[in-house]
Amino acid sequence: MTIRLAAPFQTIGRLALAGIIGASLIAGDAGAQQKQPSPGSAKALFGSASLPAQGPAQSIGFYSKGCMLGGIALPVDGPTWQAMRLSRNRRWGNPAMIALLEQLSRDAQQKIGWPGLLVGDIAQPRGGPMFNGHASHQIGLDADVWLTPMPSRRLTAQEREELPFTTTLQKGKFLTIDPRVWTQSHAKLLMLAASYPQVERIFVNPAIKKKMCDTWTGERTNLGKLRPIYGHDSHFHIRMKCPPGAAACKPQAPISDGDGCGKSLAWWFTKEPWAAPKPNVRPPKPPREMMVSDLPKSCAAVLDAPPAASIAAADGGPDATALTVAPAVPAAAGDLLPAIGPVPTDKPLVQ
Ligand SMILES: [Zn+2]
Questions:
Q1: Rounded CA separation 3/1 (Å)
Q2: Angle at which helices 184-195 and 95-112 cross, to 10°
Q3: Contacts of 157 (CB under 8 A, 6+ apart)
Q4: Pick from 63, 131, 208, 231: CA 20 to 30 A from residue 32's CA?
Q5: Angle, helix 184-195 to helix 206-215, in steps of 10 degrees
Q6: What cystine linkages occur within this chain (predicted)?
Q7: Cα end-to-end distance, the chain, whole Å
Q8: How far is CA 46 from the centre of its chain?
């Protein structure tokens, strides 16, 4: 694989670095607000917590409005996974999420021959809203997994920052899977991920959902967990149910019965979801910036809680600190977003 090397970059302070990462939209759900957060906002405060809050693991609030206590990190490397975009420091999650990712990576290798997972964003050390890339991922129960198989060698920290996404969509066509990229193993990986009872939803591009509806010949009970959404053509997004007994975790409405291959999917192939706003309609006012007081009450305490002693202390793997993270390097815009043909820019998530 070829990694395009970007121009050398010198860190000129936290804000400059954050700005570059913010502009890049590199791993994940496009569409969330890209503007720098104001000092004191929930995004700024949760984004600056570099270590998790000590305490019993708790996912507090809703996927798109909450925080996390007692998060642990997915080790940078495991036998069947590699964590990506390390500089973002978003490989933290509820222990149930970390366990699920490790299990999925093992099962994927053993049961379907997928070589291993490249894992993108999970959550910030204390969860909470992120200044770029996602509306959800706030309570440690959402994770992005690349649709690119893990290479057989260990990627360097720089490669993990810069490895471009590979879209599964065909360039120049509307919502069409690229047969040169898509394989039956991709389909099996998605259905394996959907097979765990603790997984409630898997977000994928509508073209992927359609491909699955049209071609999956195995058991279809879990097909309904695959939910079509903007973006998600180079990665898929796993959302877990609130773990049993997690009183502070606010569940999402259960998905409706059925395989989701009918009307609701057909809508994505109409013009409506992709229509440009009418020229004379004034754009809606951007929502007010989220403050800590907008989150569940205990999220303020999560911010104030003492940190875990170190990343290694909150990370199950021996290699946790072995891979030094290079400063983020600005790359050409073409490296950062998959070319998705005529499909318009991702709209804000409505999950
Ligand atoms: Zn995601």
A1: 6
A2: 140
A3: 86, 323, 324, 325, 326
A4: 208
A5: 100
A6: 213-261, 242-249
A7: 34
A8: 17
Q: Which residues surround ligand 1, an ion (CB under 5 A)?
A: 29, 144, 237
Question: Could you tell me the distance, in angstroms and rounded to a whole number, from the CA of residue 151 to the centre of ligand 1?
Answer: 22
In whole angstroms, give the CA distance from residue 203 to residue 346. 14
Instruction: Determine which helix (DSSP H) or strand (DSSP E) holds 46, and give its type and residue range.
Output: helix 42-48
- Kindly state the tokens that stand for 12: 């000129």
Helix (H, G, I), strand (E, B) or coil at 37: coil
For residues 201 and 239, the answer to whether their CB atoms sit within 8 Å is: yes
Tokens at residue 104, please? 């999925």
- How far apart are alpha carbons 96 and 242 in whole angstroms? 10
Question: Residue 111 in contact with residue 192, Cβ under 8 Å?
Answer: yes
Q: Quote the pTM value.
A: 0.81
In the chain, what are the helix, strand and coil shares in percent, each to the nearest 5?
A: 30, 15, 60
Are the C-beta atoms of residues 282 and 36 closer than 8 Å to each other?
no
State the pLDDT confidence band at 312, using cuts at 50, 70 and 90.
low
CA of 201 to the centre of ligand 1 (A): 11
pLDDT tens for each residue of 41-55? 999 999 999 999 999
